[in-house]
Design a protein that fits this description.
Number of domains: 1
Largest sheet: 8 strands, mixed
Strand order of the largest sheet: 4-3-2-1-5-8-7-6
Number of strands: 8
CATH class: Alpha Beta
Order of helices and strands: HEEEEHEHHEHEEHH
């Protein structure tokens, strides 16, 4: 897609997420990689009411090229892009169930949500937890760099997920799968659920050529 089409796609994606309750108020942000930089939703913008012409365009040093001031969480996206050369887009939401899981005190920090379904394994894989940082803390970017090279998605403690994908569509689908699996995880707490075993996970990785 050219830049104009990608701007329209970001706005359509944001509206869809907002209309379905996956983003509220001015929370969450979306970005897409360009040949000459990247696009990001502006600070304090509602994903349900984005203007294609006002999206922030930044260079790879984080400088604003055009549009409204960028989200204060721009460094989250930049860190993920720098570590994942194949990432074409990133979605960061505070969706209810994913955010709820991020607030739990007994998570496995290397893998926050167990492999409950094949689709979670296929779209997310392992989901590491990044310790709590206040919103806008630049140190959070360094924490992401330490994990993003091996993981397409991370969960920010007491905050929410940051999910990358080859395209905006792929990143959005993965974010939605994460939210639904987080819901399942919460519903199954205390019920001793059956999870996929190592052999089943290895089979999925081989069958679908998964590269997390």
């Amino acid at each position: 897609m050219n830049e104009s089409a990608l701007r329209e796609e970001i706005c359509a994606c944001g509206k869809s997420l907002y209309d379905r309750g996956l983003a509220t108020g001015s929370s969450g942000n979306i970005s897409v990689r360009l040949d000459d930089g990247w696009l990001l939703t502006p600070t304090n913008s509602c994903l349900g009411r984005l203007d294609p012409a006002r999206l922030s365009k930044l260079d790879w040093q984080g400088n604003l090229i055009s549009g409204d001031p960028a989200s204060k969480e721009a460094f989250l996206h930049r860190a993920m892009y720098e570590e994942r050369s194949g990432a074409g887009a990133i979605v960061h939401l505070h969706a209810t169930h994913s955010a709820a899981v991020s607030c739990m005190s007994d998570l496995d920090p290397c893998d926050c949500i167990p492999p409950l379904t094949a689709y979670f394994v296929m779209k997310i894989g392992q989901l590491p937890l990044i310790p709590y940082h206040r919103p806008g803390d630049p140190q959070l970017g360094n924490a992401i760099r330490g994990l993003a090279g091996k993981h397409a998605a991370v969960l920010l403690a007491n905050h929410g997920p940051v999910v990358s994908g080859k395209t905006l569509e792929a990143a959005t689908y993965a974010t939605e799968e994460l939210e639904e699996t987080a819901k399942l995880f919460l519903l199954l707490r205390g019920h001793n659920p059956r999870v996929l075993n190592d052999a089943q996970i290895a089979d999925l990785k081989q069958a679908f050529n998964l590269d997390q």
